[in-house]
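Example record

One chain of 57 residues, shown exactly as stored in the release files.
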Amino acid sequence: MKKTRFAARIIAGALASAVILTGSLAGPAQAKNDTGWPTGAKSGDTSVLKDTGWPTG
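Predicted structure tokens for this chain:
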């Protein structure tokens, strides 16, 4: 019984480490490509404009 629990802890630890490592490597790669500009907009399409927080008018 103790061997089974020990093996389960090792597997769970390895899985958690893999998830954390994957997330830490994917974040900077995704942020590198993020320009902050909306994508997929067609020329003249104003529906993608977002609230910037700056007063207008």
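Notes: The CA atoms of residues 1 and 46 lie 64 Å apart.
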